[in-house]
Give the backbone structure.
Amino acid sequence: HLIPFCNRIAPPSQTKTTRPTFATSTMSSSPSSTTAMNAQNTYPKKFVYGKDDALFGCIERQQGSKPFGHMLDAGTGTHSLRWIATLFDETKGMTSYTAVTADATMKRNVQEEADNLGILDRGNVVIGNWFNMDDDSDNNESSPSLQLSDTYDTIIADYLIGAMDGFSPYKQDLMIPKLLKLLKPGGRLYIAGLQPLPDKADGDANIICKVRQVRDACILLAGHRCYREYPADWIERQLLEKKEDDTAAVKLIETSKFPILYRQGTILKQINV
């Protein structure tokens, strides 16, 4: 599911739609389109364009003519970075980015990918945990606490909430207010996530549920924490619920839902986790 929100400045109307689209599953001055084009010519197969990706394509449609500006990728990965690299042109209007990860290996992978894409000097990749986990005995491999001083025109939380249980357990309800404080007035927050799988499903689809259960059992027996997604209505409640320390009004623009086609390769990846 994809839930875009607007901070402080409300859009003309509020809508909620369902889209039957299949989804597979440092800083610099104002950029020109030349570098992005050169990077595209050098690494043409690495870019992820909105027209080819259901989730990122939906974000681009929601954004419309509004420039992406200074962007925060709050839970980055190589896939989202390959999409971000396509936004450095006059029509998309992105000027710089900050990509955050709590995993040291992912930081190296993202920095290498940014270098390959030709955008390493247009933003920065930051490693850190969104919450200080020093007092959390359940997390023995916590990364340093994250401190960001910038505010952003656009924030992407791409499967961030689901991944938090591995880095910041029991803090999911605090993540969205933290992101909203980093959002500029009139900015956009886009939250993408996966509807939790049911315990059982009818017919052959039940194999997906069984694979998930075995995968999670192996993860727990290895001493790690499982990926834990939250449904779209939980995300909506967190965003629209009035917090005591809220200083900005938030309005829901749209919730879009996309069916996922689980292919053999997808199932094998889950088994191989």
